[in-house]
Design a protein that fits this description.
Layout: H1 8-21, H2 28-50, H3 56-63, H4 68-71, H5 74-83, H6 86-93, H7 100-123, H8 126-158, H9 164-188, H10 194-215, H11 234-238, H12 240-251, H13 254-257, H14 259-268, H15 274-326, H16 335-361, H17 367-392, H18 397-415
């Protein structure tokens, strides 16, 4: 049994370090818990970056000879698999006295799934490798769903209100640096073999196990078990704006599904080396870093306009990538990465706009219900659109991206009918 208490000197150091990360005010127990959150979340977020289905797994599947149809399914499996089970898991979570074990179990599950990907990459190729990676990713997504549904509750129980953002922000920043380092190593040629990507996924497996061990030591007070109500779908019939909002989110799904097709375009151009993967990972990380503040400020003024602008940017990026491929420019080092940079700006804009709009449009006493309903609907739609994209991949990568661009343009038109909820 691990000790959860520290000596007086260790407690003072923990308190000092944590209060430097935050605005201060935490006592010794909260400081210990806060540092465990930072370490566990940093490990988990870095692991996420190392097993990114949009780029890393798509590149690996392509290099193993998996067909484009299966490569196109990786992102919808990851996204929908993390969303759909939350409705069932949230009810089970509400009956647990200690929620840290749910998160830790989810982290272990992700670690096991990542380890399975390593075995698949080392032993299989072609269709078998593609199917194996999809199945392992489905297991990872289900485990991630357990982490997602439990984490906010755990954080709320163990870290004070004014310090929670610093915990998640610090972890996100440190993890981003790790992903950038990986991208630079890939671009520089230091990591030259396919085995480097497989090793990165193996490292992710270890990081998730580490995260589970760290968070299992959290000093969590017991919760009172309760029964959670079943998902209420009545707002879908009563609120026309909610229906239109879900339609907009559905039409903007291609901003998250399109990145693997950029990998396929690079493969079609004969440029699928690790330096290309490194460039794509690097611009994705930079876009993530630059997007948050700008889109957040714009969303405070009009999240509706953020959704319109994001859809337009997404369509522009996809059509730009297709145009570059038609012109024979897709084999140049920075052509596709620049298009991906614009696409990732659009992707983060969609994420910021949709979350802000949903919070601002929802009745105060129904926000949780609206969020659960929207997430469940989008989980189903992700699978449908992902399957459609996979079928379109049989006609070619360019045709799929043109279809996705058309859906983003349609999203902008549908968004015009949404109310300005920030006014």
């Amino acid at each position: 049994m691990w000790k959860t208490r520290e000596t007086g000197r260790d407690a003072a150091i923990s308190e000092q370090v944590f209060n430097k990360i935050t605005d201060g005010g935490a006592d010794a127990q909260e400081a210990r818990n806060g540092l465990r959150h930072v370490l566990a979340l940093t490990a988990s977020k870095l692991a996420d970056g190392l097993v990114d289905p949009k780029l890393i797994l798509s590149w690996l599947a392509t290099s193993l000879g998996a067909p484009g149809m299966l490569v196109g399914l990786l992102v919808p499996i990851r996204e929908a698999g993390a969303l759909l089970p939350q409705v069932l898991l949230s009810g089970w979570l509400s009956r647990q006295r200690y929620r840290k074990w749910v998160w830790s179990a989810g982290a272990v599950g992700q670690g096991i799934s990542a380890a399975a990907m390593v075995v698949i990459a080392l032993t299989l190729s072609g269709w078998a490798a593609g199917v194996g990676l999809c199945l392992a990713l489905a297991g990872l997504a289900l485990s991630r769903s357990a982490c997602s549904v439990s984490y906010k509750d755990i954080l709320g129980k163990t870290v004070g209100t004014s310090r929670r953002g610093s915990v998640t922000g610090t972890a996100g920043s440190v993890a981003s640096v790790g992903v950038v380092v990986l991208a630079l190593l890939l671009m520089s040629g230091v990591l030259r073999q396919q085995g480097a990507v497989i090793a990165a996924i193996g490292l992710a497996a270890l990081l998730w196990i580490l995260a589970a061990l760290v968070l299992s030591r959290l000093e969590e007070t017991a919760s009172e078990p309760s029964e959670q109500a079943v998902l209420d779908i009545s707002p879908l019939g009563e609120d026309a704006q909610l229906r239109r909002f879900i339609a907009v989110r559905a039409l903007l799904v291609p901003t998250s599904l399109a990145p693997p097709y950029f990998i396929l375009l690079a493969s079609d151009a004969g440029r699928v080396g690790l330096d290309r993967l490194g460039a794509l990972v690097l611009v994705s990380a930079i876009a993530s870093f630059l997007s948050s503040y700008v889109w957040g400020r714009l969303a405070d003024r009009s999240s509706r306009k953020v959704l319109i602008l994001s859809g337009a940017l997404g369509a522009l990026a996809m059509l730009g990538a297709v145009g570059a491929a038609w012109q024979g420019a897709a084999d140049r080092l920075w052509t596709l990465p620049l298009a991906l940079f614009v696409l990732m700006l659009a992707y983060h804009g969609v994420r910021q706009g949709r979350s802000t709009y949903l919070v601002d449009m929802s009745p105060e006493d129904q926000r949780a219900g609206y969020a659960a309903l929207a997430n469940t609907s989008i989980g189903v739609i992700l699978l449908v659109v992902g399957a459609l994209g996979g079928a379109m991949a049989l006609l070619g990568t360019k045709a799929t991206l043109i279809l996705f661009a058309g859906l983003c343009v349609a999203a902008g038109l549908v968004t015009l009918g949404l109310d300005e909820v920030e006014r």
